[in-house]
Each structure stands twice: as C-alpha cells, then as structure tokens.
Amino acid sequence: MHGAIVLITLNSPREKFWGAVLEINPAGVSVRGIDLISFDEITSMLRSDDHVMPATVFFPLNRLERMELDVTNGPIPSLAERFQSKSGRSASHFLGLDAEERD
Q1: What is the pLDDT of residues 42-73, one digit of tens each?
Q2: CA–CA separation, 78 vs 31, rounded Å?
Q3: How many CA atoms does the CB half-sphere of 62 hold within 13 Å?
Q4: How far is 80 from 66, CA to CA, in rounded Å?
Q5: Whose CB among 58, 69, 70, 103 lies 3.0–4.6 Å from 5's, allowing a Cys bridge?
Q6: 89, 31 in Cβ contact below 8 A?
Q7: Is 0.85 surpassed by the pTM of this model?
Q8: Distance of CA 91 to the CA centre of its chain
C-alpha cells in the first residue's frame, strides 16, 4: 500500500485529504498530500510556478472514516489525473514518489 494515492475521509472534524500513503500501522496512517479543500488553489499555484510542497501528516485510526484508492471511475477522472491536467505536473512527482523510487 506504500505509495498508493488515496482519498481519505476523516471525522471530528470532517475533512478530506488527498495524497500518497507512506505508512499504515495499528495506530493510524501517515500520508503526504494536501487537504482536498486546497486542491484547486494548489494546482493553480503550481501552474503559475509558485513553490508549493505537500504536507506529511499522521492521522490516528479513530479519525479515519474511509480510505479509497484514487482511480478513474468510468468517465470520471481520478484526482491524480485532474491534478496533472490542472497543474501541468504529475501527482507522483508532486507527492515525492518519483524521488523514493530512485532511493
């Protein structure tokens, strides 16, 4: 599951986070990505060549409501595809997955 791009729904408070799984353990999940509310703003900033970095966060399991793979669903593109289309950059590169593959 390491490196899988996912959409996480959290509770208390309710929010959604999009990113790459770094680790899953009995305490929770570590992810590198962005809050879904910031998605359009961040892609616009990247398109303008502004320097934006994803956050690395840990969510305890008691906050995790749902975690789903970010995949294309019929005619609906995945968030990773939308990210590339809007920002001009690959989600894998932005989330640091390319650098991990070289290590």
Answers
A1: 999 999 999 999 999 999 999 999 999 999 99
A2: 18
A3: 1
A4: 18
A5: 70
A6: no
A7: yes
A8: 8
The domain limits of the chain are 5-102
Can you tell me which residue has the tokens 């975690």? 67
Structure tokens given for 18: 């999009």
Q: pLDDT band at 99, cuts 50/70/90?
A: low
Enter the tokens of residue 85: 């289309």
Q: Compute the distance between CA of residue 61 and CA of residue 63 in angstroms, rounded to an integer.
A: 5
Q: What six digits make up the tokens of 79?
A: 């968030």
Residues whose CB is less than 8 angstroms from the CB of residue 9 and which lie 6 or more positions away in sequence, other chains included: 15, 16, 64, 65, 66, 67
- Mutual orientation of helices 79-87 and 39-47 as an angle, nearest 10°? 30
